[in-house]
Amino acid sequence: MKWWPVIQKIISEYADEPMPDHVREDPFRVLIGCILSQRTKDETTDAAYRRLFSRFSGPEDLARANPAEIEKLIYPVGFYRNKAKTIVKAARYILEEFGGTVPDRFDDLIKIPGIGRKCANIVLAYAFGKPAIPVDTHVFRVAKRLGIVPKGAKPEDVENALMRIVPQDQWVKVNHALVRFGRAVCRPVGPRCDECPLKEVCDYARKEQTGA
Fold it and tell me: pTM of the prediction?
């Protein structure tokens, strides 16, 4: 199966939809927005993000912040108490190790507290416009359902598979497009397989139709 035309179709239909607030701005804010967004809906993340940055402006402020104050600002994001502490640690680390400037290298980003592979790639793609493919739960689900990766695959396997399939100049569009597609059509519960334009090539849709 040649998967690029399939991914290209999703990109063409969904990549131009509006971006969440927390991935539109400078690298530090995108990084903090990614910490906030984990296991949290975009609407909740964006509201918390706006409250946080109406009070704090950057790493210098947040490095000195009381986590209890941050908790109040970011509630009700998931794990808000842990995230408040992580935000302070991340700000301090960026100040101490990088002089207050978020690095634009993957290996440096993943050293920052609270930043794993997905968030590092989000910062690279959205804040720096560098070729990267962040794999969150939506991207992971869509890739597995389509059959791009086999059962038992891990997020890094999905990332590597998509990097092989998609031309590098399109990598920055993949996450946003697949997330939007995953929310609108390939939903975690009640996927709209009957309406999906990809149902003829989708492993999950074929199994649903045949009951296999």
Answer: 0.93
Looking up tokens 């680390």 gives 93
Question: How far is residue 47 CA from its own chain's centroid?
Answer: 17
Whole-number pLDDT of residue 81: 98
CATH of domain 4-17+133-210: 1.10.1670.10
Instruction: Return d(Cα 63, Cα 88) in angstroms, integer.
Output: 5
d(CA 140, CA 148): 10
Q: How many CB atoms lie within 10 A of CB 91?
A: 25
At 24-48, the pLDDT tens digits run 889 999 999 999 999 999 899 999 9
Can you give the pLDDT at residue 13?
Answer: 96
Domain span(s) for CATH 1.10.1670.10 in the chain = 4-17+133-210
What pLDDT is recorded for position 19?
87
Its CATH class, for the domain covering 21-127, is: mainly alpha
Contact 38, 50 (CB under 8 A): no
Which residues fall within 8 angstroms of residue 189, CB to CB, at 6 or more apart? none
Domain limits, CATH 1.10.340.30, in the chain: 21-127
Residue 58: how many CB atoms within 10 A of its CB?
A: 16
Mean pLDDT of 54-67: 96
Residues annotated as catalytic (active site), given as ranges: 118, 136
